[in-house]
Amino acid sequence: MSLVISWIDVGALEAIPRQGARVVATPRGDVAVFRTHDDGLFALDDRCPHRGGPLSQGIVHGHAVTCPLHNWVIELASGAARRPDEGCSHRHAVRLERGRVLLALPADAGPEAAGHG
Amino acid sequence: MTTQNSRQGQQERGGRERLVVIGNGMAGMRAVEELLAIDPGRYAITVFGAEPRGNYNRIMLSPLLAAEKRFEEILLNDLDWYAANGITLKAGDPVVAIDRERRVVTARSGLECGYDRLLLATGSDPIVIPVPGRDLPGLVTFRDVDDVAAMVAASARGGSAVVIGGGLLGLEAANGLAARGMETTVVHLAGHLMERQLDASAAHLLEGELARRGITVLTGADTAEILGPDRVTGVRLKDGREIPADLVVMAVGIRPNAALAREAALEVGRGVLVDDDMTTSDPEILAVGECVEHRGQCYGLVAPLFEMAKVVASRLAGRDGLGFTGSVPATKLKVSGVDLFSAGDFSGGPGSEDIVLRDAGRGVYKRLVLAEGRLRGLVLYGDTTDSAWYLQLLRAGEALGELRDSLAFGRAYAGGAVTQDPRQAVAALPDEAEICGCNGVCKGRIVETIARAGLTSAEQVRAHTKASASCGSCSGLVEQLLAVTLGEDYRVAEGAEPICGCTPHDHDSVRRLILARELKTIPAVMQALEWSTPDGCHSCRPALNYYLLCAWPGEYLDQAAARFVNERLHANIQKDGTYSVVPRMWGGQTSAAELRAIADVVERYAIPTVKVTGGQRIDLLGVRKQDLPSVWRDLNAAGMVSGHAYGKALRTVKTCVGSEWCRFGTRDSTAMGIALERMTWGSWMPHKVKLAVSGCPRNCAEATIKDFGVVAVESGWELHVGGNGGMKVRACDRLCKVETAEEVKLWCGAFLQLYREEARYLERTAPWIERVGLEHVAERLSDPDRRAAYHRRFLESQRHAQVDPWAERAAGAEAEAFRPLASVEG
């Protein structure tokens, strides 16, 4: 089965607070789009690999976010939990074009399919 | 059409090709110079310029304004140069139309001029934001020599100036005006200066330097209007502030000047579209400089313009070769005495990493952004000696390899001779190396004192040698010296553990230094105390936010990004990502109206669980995030405000019914509880704080396991402190007995302020009192004057803190925090 990924304009960069995140609601659940102190953009499923906490509500520091439920630290670039914790949140590709945030989402994929960051 | 021009066209026909250059600026003339160098006789060249003068160095306008240079010194090509090179210069007569079919340009004077090749170098226009009053006399932009002349004339009359825009040009304008004696304010929309070139830390240093030069900087300031009936008298911001001004400089940015190209039906985006050969959609027309858009990018800095000029010259000379493929822009702020450099992309992104070097003593900040082992961007402040070297590494784009580890130390260390391990680096220092600059203490003296006096802690070193006793920025070095000298025997003293992995400083040192050095923002603390990460972590950022809030009430701006989610959203996050809402019930007393409003809210928003808490409040559990503002609005309407059940803050004041109803009650404990809660609600604390008031020694309100507990007795009120339930139950210590309700309030405020000022973040009153001892607390509060001073400071802080966060958000504040950025359909 072929996977169609499309870039979707989800809003302006300014709509996401620095050192913060906003959520994009999708049929497969919320995706958290993070903006770091240096304006880096990252997107992960809004679920901590530990107990499903909403990562979008965590404190964003460097290129990592701390889950608000039990303080797991998730690397934004990889979605992986920082050791000694283990687990991974699903990544989505995201980029900035002329001030707009574009998020890659599978257009007609099943629940298993998704973009790759 | 004039006869003179037709003649000129004919003269060249059949002879040399005719090149017409529109624009007498830096990019156009650099292209001509490059062309003359490689193919001098090829073209008959005509240059049209809007300004009635020769070609000057526009980037030197800032030194011109600051009176560091004269116009003659910034002139690049005088009129003789044009003559000597056979170039016809039409200065002060801009081209107004291009006829591509006839290959003729028309100037404002009506003069026509035919071309074989045309070069557009029309540069850019300053952006003037469309606010009322933008046409008033006294408002200038900062773009050419005439603007500078207007500013110099204005400054000769003295008075004050407002510069709108805190970017490169705006700051240079501000510096020049301040140097000419004007009282200068910079008004900047973004959260920090030069946000496109600098990160927050470097911008903070810059702001400090500008302040020392008497320049006031207002960030997050959005201009609403230029004031004045006949000429500018000031600037009004959207938040209502008004700043008087005799001169307003608009320096918010530039826009490519592509009007001429657009009218000639060339392809235009933001600028004139060109390919890698700098050729427009018409193959006979090239473009160069700030007017072009190349691969989606417009350039406003000089280096890329010069690269473009080289390509233009080679194409005009009929040569192939490497085209323009884009450029890594580098920025240097031309404010004398300020060393600031940034280049490349320091916006981070997936897979990038930061190397941060801070040297507070020298005022140096370096941030290097790496990706895939290559240098991708950098910010240098205070020490730009290696900027050329870094830029070379950046442009080469080669893998750094072993260079990576010593990269931050600059070129001199790049040979690999210097070790990265800080402990080894300290060990390698000579004995005469100065460790503490403030007190002039060298390494040899510290090592000798450690050995002679048998010192084992940084505190002791401070006491014996004065090293790190002043500004504290060498504390890390002192620790390293102890470790090197004592080897295995050295242990970091208990209680002096660093806040987190981002810093060697402990909580108490950070608080001391925030006050001593008047650090007033999180970036300021991180810079001055040499944080090792760019923006801290989830441990240190909330701590710093609290310390700054406590140190500078009313002055420090609370940072949402430094708050745990509960304190950001003013509700308690639950395991399923929903929230709980606890309205305040003063002293635990409620009414039919409040209960009815709560019941309505529960039904309206289908709230699944309603629970009574241990602190005598009602908890609504399972509220969806997007419903929070409406829930609060409805509770607000019934007179209820945030209960702060979510914060490191005053939570509840629990009471019994007291003498109003109870047959044993000796005093009105409910009224006392309500009074205390009215005084203390909304206050931020190192940790949660709970109060209780019991009306008799039976103590039904459990006041003796509270942070501050009051128990009424026949002869007055007993005050208890430092208790809590929870994981490790601790009963209170009895502090004292007082007689009047006023005294209870005074002691309560004073005690809470002492706790706020001395306890470490996330330390409740119980462990704090165990650590410092009840005697210490009693001693601090025993003197009536000092007690009153603590109480006064508490009330002063409360003046700024007692704002209902629910009401603000119900009214629409931070609305975006509660709703998705976007929703994507399947």
TrEMBL record, chain A:
Keywords associated with the record? 2Fe-2S, Iron, Iron-sulfur, Metal-binding, Nitrate assimilation, Oxidoreductase
Is Metal-binding one of the keywords? Answer: yes
PROSITE patterns, from UniProt?
RIESKE (PS51296)
Location of the Rieske domain = 7-103
Q: Which InterPro entries match?
A: Rieske-like_NirD, Rieske_2Fe-2S, Rieske_2Fe-2S_sf
Q: Which SUPFAM superfamilies match?
A: ISP domain
Among the GO biological process terms of this entry, one is:
nitrate assimilation
Superkingdom of the source?
Bacteria
Q: Which PANTHER family match?
A: 3-PHENYLPROPIONATE_CINNAMIC ACID DIOXYGENASE FERREDOXIN SUBUNIT (PTHR21496:SF23), FERREDOXIN-RELATED (PTHR21496)
Q: What is this protein called?
A: Assimilatory nitrite reductase (NAD(P)H) small subunit
TrEMBL record, chain B:
Entry cofactor note text? Binds 1 siroheme per subunit.
Give residue ranges for domain BFD-like [2Fe-2S]-binding: 435-483, 499-548
Annotated Pfam families: Fer2_BFD (PF04324), NIR_SIR (PF01077), NIR_SIR_ferr (PF03460), Pyr_redox_2 (PF07992), Rubredoxin_C (PF18267)
Domain FAD/NAD(P)-binding stretches: 18-293
InterPro entries assigned to the protein according to its UniProt record, in alphabetical order: BFD-like_2Fe2S-bd_dom, BFD-like_2Fe2S-bd_dom_sf, FAD/NAD-bd_sf, FAD/NAD-binding_dom, FAD/NAD-linked_Rdtase_dimer_sf, NasD-like, NiRdtase/SiRdtase_haem-b_fer, Nit/Sulf_reduc_fer-like_dom_sf
Q: Which domain of life is it from?
A: Bacteria
One of the entry's Gene Ontology molecular-function terms is: 4 iron, 4 sulfur cluster binding
Do you know which SUPFAM superfamilies this protein is assigned to? FAD/NAD(P)-binding domain, Nitrite and sulphite reductase 4Fe-4S domain-like, Nitrite/Sulfite reductase N-terminal domain-like
Positions that bind siroheme: 700
Q: Which residues form the Nitrite/sulphite reductase 4Fe-4S domain?
A: 647-782
Q: Provide this UniProt record's keywords sorted from A to Z.
A: 2Fe-2S, 4Fe-4S, FAD, Flavoprotein, Heme, Iron, Iron-sulfur, Metal-binding, Nitrate assimilation, Oxidoreductase
Q: Which residues form the NADH-rubredoxin oxidoreductase C-terminal domain?
A: 329-396
Q: Which PROSITE patterns match?
A: NIR_SIR
GO BP: nitrate assimilation
Q: Taking every annotated instance into account, which residue ranges of this chain make up the domain Nitrite/Sulfite reductase ferredoxin-like?
A: 574-638
Cofactors (names)? siroheme; [2Fe-2S] cluster; [4Fe-4S] cluster; FAD
| Pathway(s) annotated for this protein in UniProt | Nitrogen metabolism; nitrate reduction (assimilation)
The positions annotated for binding [4Fe-4S] cluster are 656, 662, 696, 700
Family statement: Belongs to the nitrite and sulfite reductase 4Fe-4S domain family.
Q: What is the official name of this protein in its record?
A: Assimilatory nitrite reductase (NAD(P)H) large subunit
Report the source organism.
Answer: Tistlia consotensis USBA 355
